[in-house]
Amino acid sequence: MECKNGAEHLQSLRDGRTVYLDGKLVGDVTIHPAYRNAVATAGLLYDYQSRPENSELMTFLPDGGARRVNRCWQMPRNYQGLVERRKALQAWACLSYGFLGRSPDHVASAVIGQRMGLDVFARHGPARARALADYVDHAARNDLFLTYVIVNPQADRSKDWGEQADELVARIVDEDSTGLTIRGAKMLGTSSIMANEVFVANLQPLKPGEEALAFSCALPMNTAGMRVLSRKSYEAHAVSVYDNPLSARFDENDALLYFDDVKVPWERVFVHRDTDMCRAQFHDTPGHIFQNYQAQIRLSVKVKFLVGLAHKITEAIGTTNMPQVREQLGALAANAGMVEALLTGMEASGSQRGEFYLPNRHLVYAAQVMTQDLYPRLITLIRDLAGGSLIMLPSSFRDWANPELAPILRKTQRSPNFTPEDKVKLLKAAWDAVGSEFASRHTQYEMFYAGARFVATGHSYRTFDWGEARGMVDHLLSTYDLEGAGEPPAA
What is the pLDDT along the chain (491 residues), one digit of tens a residue? Predict the structure, then answer.
């Protein structure tokens, strides 16, 4: 009955995957200085769920399963099941303070959402529906860490995807009785360094004539011909955990994946040359809702952490009791409450889709729109509260070991509530969260992980009950005429 643990996950990553960084082929990602701490953090997630005292909170036994797996694979059948699953995901998010945006529960949420809409795949064809169902069952039973690449590389945005240069966007270049061959690139492979498999699909709209681009599939990360081109590692550039406590341990990394004539067996192909089905697998199933619901679960933890960080900064510099600072802290607390309220609201006002219980679609998208704007404002407010305290910090932890510098630091880094060492420790963490290169990436991520703002607002527009809202206006207008005569609105 034992569930997957950290040692098992780390061993699974020693699979010969092809990862490039700084122009060189990376060997074992579990020990490479650019990735080892983040990979270890992924292992800690599985260690946490494997502790006996966390078993009920974090895991469940799937039907016919041989051992328990994380609740991210649980398909809730009622409100209580949805809340039970959310509590497990929040507990995982707390281990990284919300900074692992693509922890294992993110893509798991996307694919179980698609599995709950298997009828949509069945309309595409029984073979593809069976392939998806079998794959999700396989991924769940083995508690796999999945990443995904569902966005095409930006090149010439004035052209359609099918008009881009050859071998840019991943496409089908051949197929036979055994499967497809794909060639080209996809992004953003966030957490691909520490994942077991990658889900490949098209979230961006395709049009008729782009059938060669219209596929989805799943592949192990060590598949022959698949190359992972890592972005700069913030972990590798972190001075120390004391100086960079977040980027030194929680840089999940992003990567471009290039498929160099990669063979995909038919049992791993879920969409085949159908441009509308690429849309339907996300939006006609609960897939898109569940993946963005998970993002809001994680963000609720991250926002709470940042608000707590803001309060501790004011304690460190002695401004907490100033009325104008209390006002800003109160506003930050209200924002954290709003994110939490939207999360519980989308659960409480959810609905059944067949045998499964789903969060409220419109509230998921409403939260997405609001938090895209909220996150950068939150970061700016924290920087405003901190002022110059984030700038005048020791160059690194090594300054404390210098007998000439340490006394000066203890004089100049005074605090009404902290020792000089602890004040610097806090402010270093604050800078890593709001001002470092790692922090800037997170601001960009929270603003755009779900697409540009017009994409999120478009989903909100599409899912809002305009009939009810407009009906209220129409009812008011029907209660009087040009001369103002009429009856008061009925109760």
Answer: 589 999 999 999 999 999 999 999 998 999 999 999 999 999 999 999 999 999 999 999 998 778 999 999 999 999 999 999 999 999 999 999 999 999 999 999 999 999 999 999 999 899 999 999 999 999 999 999 999 999 888 766 656 656 656 778 899 999 999 999 999 999 889 999 999 999 999 988 888 999 999 999 999 999 999 999 999 999 999 999 999 999 999 999 999 999 999 999 999 999 999 999 999 999 999 999 999 999 999 999 999 999 999 999 999 999 999 999 999 999 999 999 999 999 999 999 999 999 999 999 999 999 999 999 999 999 999 999 999 999 889 999 999 999 999 999 999 999 999 999 999 999 999 999 999 999 999 989 888 877 778 888 998 999 999 999 999 999 988 888 887 666 666 65
Same-domain status, 230 and 310: no
The domain that holds 151 is classified in CATH as 2.40.110.10
Q: Are residues 214 and 296 in the same domain?
A: no
CA dist., res. 359 & res. 367, Å (int)? 12
* Range of the structural domain that residue 85 is part of: 6-283
User: Is residue 436 classed as helix, strand or coil in its secondary structure?
Assistant: coil
Q: Is residue 491 part of a domain?
A: no
**What's 293's domain CATH number?**
1.20.140.10
Which residue is associated with the tokens 């070991």?
A: 401
Domain check: are 259 and 380 in the same one?
no
Is the bond preceding 363 in cis, omega lying within 30 degrees of 0?
no
- Both 259 and 345 in a single domain? no
Residues 318 and 250 in one domain: no
Q: Cα-flanking dihedrals φ and ψ of residue 416, to 5°?
A: -70, -15
Question: Is there a domain that residue 483 lies in?
Answer: no
| Number of domain units in the chain | 2
The Cα 193–Cα 201 span in angstroms is 19
CA distance 235 to 9: 20
pTM: 0.92
What CA–CA distance (Å, rounded) separates 20 from 312?
39
137 shares its domain with 244:
yes
Asked if residues 122 and 132 have their Cβ atoms less than 8 Å apart, the reply is: no
Tally of CB atoms within 10 A around 394: 22
Q: Which residues pair with 340 in a beta bridge?
A: none
The verdict on residue 486 lying in a domain is no
